[in-house]
Amino acid sequence: MWARHGSYVPTTSAERRERVFPKGPLHPLAPSLRLSADNVTFRSYLEAFERVLAENDMPRIRAFIDSNLDTVPSRIFLRMITALKLQKQYENKLDEMEAVKKLRAEYIIAQDQVFFPLNVEIEKAETR
Fold it and tell me: CB count, 10 Å around CB of 8?
């Protein structure tokens, strides 16, 4: 159906480059969303993500993750935010744990959307 109506499914190499692969520093919104690689820390990335998340704009949230992928790989950040959640849980700071848990869930949703087209292409390649 999509293929007949201005498809979201890439059919050429050029379309795959444009639609499938994250852009990193080449993302159009990178100039406003990208963190400086010189002094990025878990806290600075977390605070920047919270600011973008507060805007409640999913395309901008995805753009933030995409724009910073080469500096902070999404799986590394996810592991760190999971560790923070577990730390708050261990310290019995349940309100803080719930806040981190919610933040983590939002990150997972956005991260999955960033990588969905690439994951589809990987699945297709693995079945060939």
Answer: 11
Q: What pTM, to 2 d.p., does this model score? A: 0.79
Q: Smallest Cα–Cα separation from 44: which of 13, 68, 12?
A: 68
Residue 55: which residues within 8 A CB-CB, separation 6 or more?
A: 61
Helix intervals (H) in the chain: 13-19, 30-33, 42-54, 58-67, 74-90, 94-127
Extents of the domains making up the chain: 23-127
Chain Cα centroid distance, residue 47: 15
User: Is-contact 69 24, C-beta < 8 A?
Assistant: yes
Rg for the chain, CA atoms, rounded: 17
Do residues 45 and 61 lie in contact, with contact meaning Cβ atoms separated by under 8 Å?
no
Structure tokens of 62?
């995805």
The tokens describing 73, both together, are 């790989």
Read off the tokens for 40.
């990025």
Contacts of 61 (CB under 8 A, 6+ apart): 49, 52, 53, 55, 106, 110
pLDDT tens-place string over residues 8-28: 666 677 777 777 677 878 788
Two tokens, residue 108: 């997972």
